[in-house]
Amino acid sequence: MTTISVKVEFSGGLELLFSNQRSHAVTIPSTDPTDSAPTNLQYLITYLRDNLLKERVELFVENETVRPGILVLVNDTDWELEGEGDYVLKDGDEIVFISTLHGG
Amino acid sequence: MAPRTCALCETAKAMLKRPKTGQQICRDCFFYVFETEVHNTITESKLFQRGDRVAIGASGGKDSTVLARVMKTLNERYDYGLELFLLSIDEGITGYRDDSLETVKRNQEQYDMPLKILSYDELYGWTMDAIVSQVGRKNNCTFCGVFRRQALDRGAAMLNVDHIVTGHNADDIAETVLMNIMRGDIARLGRCTAICTQGEDTIKRSKPFKYAYEKEIVMYAYFKKLDYFSTECIYSPDAYRGHARVFLKELEAARPSAIIDIIHSGEAFEVREEVKATQRVQQTCKRCGYMSSNDLCKACTLLEGLERGMAIAGITDRGRKQLEAQGPAPDNLRTIPLFKLPSANPTIAIETAS
Ligand SMILES: [Zn+2]
Ligand SMILES: [Zn+2]
């Protein structure tokens, strides 16, 4: 099985759900084992929920995607410009999740 | 997907989709339009006059950190001629406020603005930690809200400023509109969308980010690598507001204009004169001189309850009656220092950036 490595960063308070650690190196299969399609951001979100999330899943994922109010950046670009969950991950990508729900 | 180019400069790679307009723009154009829109809000509402002394209510969180940066930028770019200060309130919450104040202290150096920190402990003789240990976690937010509001005004008076600006953004205001509707608080509904509030003898308060979306504030902080603090208060977050916030985010996901639409509906409610008339006339507190609609201001009532070991006295009418039944306040009761509105001369020395 071939794999790809991506750098994942949590901020804006989300890091508290992930062992209070902001930066994580994540290695995932390059194709989705269930349908052999290239691994996308949607797969990564599910993977993070199932493997890295330590508590209160409802604060990260809702209806199989990130909860409203969480911003996602793909190599510093708003994921809304990159196809959101359909974005196909490449080795070395940097994915940032920022919560906007925490106090101002 | 091929990278898209910026809709404004048509050269650089688009990095952000604006929630207000759906426009796809690059990083530099984003900084420019974001700052320009805040400038337009400020000039259209005539918020400041040349020579004004303005305090930025700084919590170390994202909104006030971005506000400090943008106010500094605009003051220089458009030569507003303002004197800017940072004003922080230290509620005395170990592991929360002490950490966020470290962020504010770094901001003071980065932005080269004088900083004043006023603590509940020095003003009221009680930290939030001490209040929570007496009242528990049920009513502690009432204490904190009343004490913070008065502390900000007092800090502003000490700095001798004309004006306090806060980081409230469009999402916060839409949320407040929803909450006031859900609580049936029509009088507040009429006021909560105002960009600037000023009672007869209160210090002016305004919200330059009234039309700025939270997403853009967070992206601005991220792209500029601003240093902010983002931990929720450890003492029971406002659950009601939390639900309103989640509901609003879901509406926004379905239709991004929802936030501005809700602010506009709030503005469109006209409060009838009879409703306005039920709002009490302002006077000054007989004990501390702060603005009040009763003989005693809310903070003095709450403080007396704490000092006499009957914290509930400041919360419910029944508690108040029980306290009154115990006789008048003792002469040696701890009180809040006398409040004076800003005078011509600053009354205290402020800490300056080292
Ligand atoms: Zn551009
Ligand atoms: Zn008083």
Report on this structure.
Chain A: Its main location: cytoplasm. The complex is a heterodimer of chains A (104) and B (354). Chain A has 104 residues and is mostly beta strands. Chain A has a single domain (3-99), classed as Ubiquitin-like (UB roll) (Roll), CATH 3.10.20. Chain A has one helix at 41-51; strands at residues 3-11, 23-29, 61-62, 65-66, 70-74, 77-78, 94-99. In chain A, strands 2-1-7-5-6 form a 5-stranded mixed β-sheet, with no helix packed on it. The longest helix of chain A has 11 residues, at 41-51. The mean pLDDT of chain A is 91. Chain B has helices spanning 27-44, 62-77, 97-111, 120-124, 128-135, 140-159, 170-183, 186-192, 214-223, 239-254, 258-268, 273-277, 298-307, 317-325; strands at residues 16-17, 24-25, 53-57, 83-90, 115-119, 163-165, 196-197, 204-206, 283-284, 291-292. Helices cover 46% and strands 10% of the residues of chain B. The model of chain B is unreliable at 344-349 (pLDDT under 50). Chain B folds into 2 domains: 45-229 and 237-279, Rossmann fold (3-Layer(aba) Sandwich), CATH 3.40.50.620; 281-341, no CATH class. In chain B, strands 5-4-3-6-8-7 form a 6-stranded mixed β-sheet, sandwiched between helices. Classes of the chains: A mainly beta (104), B alpha/beta (354). Chain A binds chain B through residues 11-13, 16, 67-69, 71, 73, 76-78, 80-83, 87, 96, 98-104, and chain B through 1, 4, 13-17, 24, 59, 61-64, 167-169, 171-172, 214-215, 217-219, 222-223, 230-233, 245-246, 249-250, 252-253. One zinc ion is lined by residues 6, 8-9, 12, 25-26, 28-29 of chain B. The site of one zinc ion (ZN) has 9 residues of chain B, from helix 13.
Strand content of chain A: 25-35%
Question: How are the strands of the largest sheet of chain B arranged?
Answer: 5-4-3-6-8-7
What is the H/E order of chain B? Answer: EEHEHEHEHHHEHHEEHHHHEEHH
Mean pLDDT across every amino acid position of chain B: 87
Tally of distinct domains of chain B: 2
Secondary-structure-derived class of chain B: alpha/beta
Helix segment tally of chain B: 14
CATH superfamily of chain A: Beta-grasp domain
**Distance from first to last alpha carbon of chain B:** 49 Å
Q: At the first level of CATH, what is the class of the largest domain in chain B?
A: Alpha Beta
| N-C termini distance of chain A | 44 Å
Q: State the CATH topology of chain A.
A: Ubiquitin-like (UB roll)
The helix content of chain B, as a percent range, equals: 40-55%
- As for the number of domains of chain A, it is 1
Low-confidence stretches of chain B: 344-349
- Most strands sheet of chain A: 5 strands, mixed
Which structural class should the secondary elements of chain A be placed in?
Answer: mainly beta
Q: What hetero molecules are bound to the protein chains?
A: zinc ion
CATH level-two architecture of chain A: Roll
Q: Multimeric state of these chains?
A: heterodimer
CATH architecture call of the largest domain in chain B: 3-Layer(aba) Sandwich
